[in-house]
């Protein structure tokens, strides 16, 4: 069974026995949920939201308005004169200063609401410094002071621009907390979107940062940002000669905006044009966020896979499979896994780009388990395709490595490998099935029958059924000859696992297991006097063979094969 919605080729291939009880759409949704949970675990909230830390060195001098190309990662301009500091102040001194300022919170609130611009700026700087301690208690007290709408108002003040900068910084750090929704609903979002077109590069950078934090919190916050048209002005940032630090923030913000289901009015192709350039970056942070954004589009946009293929991202993605950093490999291989969930034509694109030799290396070498699981998922999607695609997997020597994992790896990785083998066995040609058996797939496939995953066990049964059919063809009509594959399964304990499926809590699995038992092991089944009744309550009628019937032994195929 493919790890995706069944394709027409699968339906035609499985037409001989198409049970109604396995819901492919339900199976696909459950696997996609697991994939999404996997991505969440590997890219935690600390990577979604980013606080802008208070610099420990002395504040920088005031930046002239004309200096629009200043580095956006530098500390914001301060109204205080600069003075050199030989070393950062100790942490105790910073905490003491923050505590002292917290005691004067009411005075700071009064200053923020004053009519004097210099006083407003002074108070906003104090709030920004106060938030630098990262304490939740400090955040709560500031929020209860009801100053967020005032900071949102400051975002529209063009003079002095430093007030916009400081207000945006305050809102950025509040948005990085658990109180993001308050920032999203205080009127700041439309003003932050407007600041993406500010002539000041520092302000544009800070607005991008704030919007990225808001979009990262929850779907409703992200929708607020999207509803105010943030995508277009954000994409415009990438057309400038950006500093690497600013480009990192913009790419990260774009990735957060792409997460989830993008609304229909958002144009995906302009985003993909930018991503197709970003995935060539030498900077790992830019590269990782760009690949996550690509995955989100492929997963959350109708037709996103084809849009990504049309944007020409596949050649570079395949090259990145050999990247030395696991931080890059994970989003790259996850994106390719999503693309492999497309139709046979879309899957063929990544096959032709040379993904299979890369997968063979990933499966053979000492890569993290999560990388190998994603590699097996891609292989399983390819083997769910045409016979030519199955043959391409065999020719690239990928199947050997998958069978080794099926025999020797941990259970969760074995399951992924089992999907790949089962799909190949279900849809493979006679020669392909013989190849799989010669490499020793039968015994580990029989062990998969012990798992409680309905879709996996059923697909494994389909694969075994196809293998057993091939064994019957090999008899060339000579009924006195034993099916060698059935004999091998019997001698290696596979029959016990099949019989256990008579108690499996799923009708479809039960019926196919019984079909195989009756067809290929009728004598062994009839010997079991405690054979249970069928699921509909009627007794099963099993043909028996006389005990004295001739059963000439046939050597079973090797479980090892030549690896």
Automatic annotation (TrEMBL):
SUPFAM superfamilies: ARM repeat. GO terms for molecular function: nuclear import signal receptor activity. InterPro entries: ARM-like (IPR011989), ARM-type_fold (IPR016024), Arm_3 (IPR032413), Armadillo (IPR000225), Importin-a_IBB (IPR002652), Importin_alpha (IPR024931). Residues 74-91 have a biased composition (Pro residues). Residues 57-73 have a biased composition (Low complexity). Forms a complex with importin subunit beta-1. Belongs to the importin alpha family. PANTHER family: IMPORTIN ALPHA. This is Importin subunit alpha. It comes from Triticum urartu. The lineage of its organism: Eukaryota, Viridiplantae, Streptophyta, Embryophyta, Tracheophyta.
